[in-house]
């Protein structure tokens, strides 16, 4: 069978009426924790986002979207999927090329494309440079396991050492936190604030975008009392100022849990962690989990994903020991290219 060409495939803007067809090619995506069913209609309402589907012989065979960020100079591509019967046939490459052509024609100010992938990036993104990678640790907690999980993690945090309390940041405090250039340089490798697989700079417009999403922000100051916190790496901000990596403390973002196709009332819960101190990381995970459980509807469970610096992988894996693992991804990779 010959592979389809760009002349065979029709790429059109996605609409609300296309929802069921797009979902029909998404069955089994991400082992039942696909975000698109919960995000599709929300994305349609976003004026900064454009969504596309690919049709071949009248049938939907692919989907892709991009959202404009960084004050309109960067486009982040999200949601790519291809029907199971057309995978590895070149459909993904065709839809992405057409989307890039559309982007360049309609948004000439965009100079950069960014995207996230899992594991080693495929050859289809060979033009992209690697910006950063983070470790992923994930567990599944059914409704009747939530109390036990929280108690277990509380015990493990209490056994580690005392830490300064976490602060739940208000919108004003979030904006203030990133006014200091050392915050971004110290906490965020390459200045990237990755929230729910969306890689952003700390431009004020991006922060304001995130503040509309009900995200829980926790921040804690770095600890000077114990040797755990004495070894600090250093980075430089945009002006060349040296900033100790730990000087900005530790930051976590918790995405409100949302229903996924896994069934049994399961919800997905993403916790993005920024910083390198393992005890702070565990404390943030605990408090984010407590908050996430509070937001669940009655009888619901969660699949919880932790995204952290690679140096924290072993610590967080041990921290979650005795909880049921949900092995799906090992890494989160951020890629970028100029256009």
From TrEMBL:
<dbReference type="InterPro" id="IPR056483">
    <property type="entry name" value="Hisat_C"/>
</dbReference>
<protein>
    <submittedName>
        <fullName>Probable N-acetyltransferase 16</fullName>
    </submittedName>
</protein>
<dbReference type="InterPro" id="IPR016181">
    <property type="entry name" value="Acyl_CoA_acyltransferase"/>
</dbReference>
<dbReference type="InterPro" id="IPR000182">
    <property type="entry name" value="GNAT_dom"/>
</dbReference>
<dbReference type="GO" id="GO:0016747">
    <property type="term" value="F:acyltransferase activity, transferring groups other than amino-acyl groups"/>
</dbReference>
<dbReference type="Pfam" id="PF24066">
    <property type="entry name" value="Hisat_C"/>
</dbReference>
<feature type="domain" description="N-acetyltransferase">
    <location>
        <begin position="9"/>
        <end position="172"/>
    </location>
</feature>
């Amino acid at each position: 069978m010959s592979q389809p060409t760009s002349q065979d495939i029709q790429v059109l803007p996605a609409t609300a009426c296309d929802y069921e067809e797009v979902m029909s090619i998404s069955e089994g995506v991400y082992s039942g924790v696909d975000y698109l069913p919960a995000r599709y209609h929300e994305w349609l309402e976003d004026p900064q986002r454009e969504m596309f589907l690919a049709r071949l012989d009248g049938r939907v065979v692919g989907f892709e979207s991009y959202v404009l960020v960084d004050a309109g100079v960067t486009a982040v591509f999200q949601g790519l999927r291809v029907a199971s019967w057309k995978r590895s046939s070149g459909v993904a490459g065709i839809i992405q090329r057409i989307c890039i052509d559309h982007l360049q024609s309609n948004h000439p100010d965009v100079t950069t494309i960014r995207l996230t992938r899992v594991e080693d990036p495929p050859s289809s993104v060979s033009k992209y440079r690697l910006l950063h990678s983070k470790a992923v640790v994930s567990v599944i907690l059914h409704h009747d396991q939530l109390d036990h999980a929280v108690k277990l993690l509380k015990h493990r945090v209490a056994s580690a050492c005392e830490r300064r309390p976490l602060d739940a940041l208000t919108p004003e405090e979030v904006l203030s936190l990133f006014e200091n250039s050392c915050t971004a340089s110290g906490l965020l490798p390459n200045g990237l604030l990755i929230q729910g697989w969306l890689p952003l700079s700390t431009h004020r417009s991006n922060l304001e975008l995130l503040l509309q999403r009900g995200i829980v922000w926790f921040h804690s100051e770095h600890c000077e009392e114990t040797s755990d916190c004495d070894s600090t790496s250093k980075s430089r901000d945009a002006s060349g100022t040296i900033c100790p990596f730990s000087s900005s403390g530790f930051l976590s973002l918790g995405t409100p849990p949302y229903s996924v196709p896994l069934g049994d009332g399961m919800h997905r819960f993403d916790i993005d962690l920024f910083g390198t101190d393992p005890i702070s990381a565990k404390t943030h995970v605990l408090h984010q989990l407590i908050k996430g459980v509070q937001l669940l509807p009655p009888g619901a469970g969660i699949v919880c994903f932790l995204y952290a610096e690679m140096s924290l992988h072993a610590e967080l894996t041990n921290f979650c020991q005795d909880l049921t693992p949900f092995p799906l991804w090992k890494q989160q990779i951020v890629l970028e290219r100029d256009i």
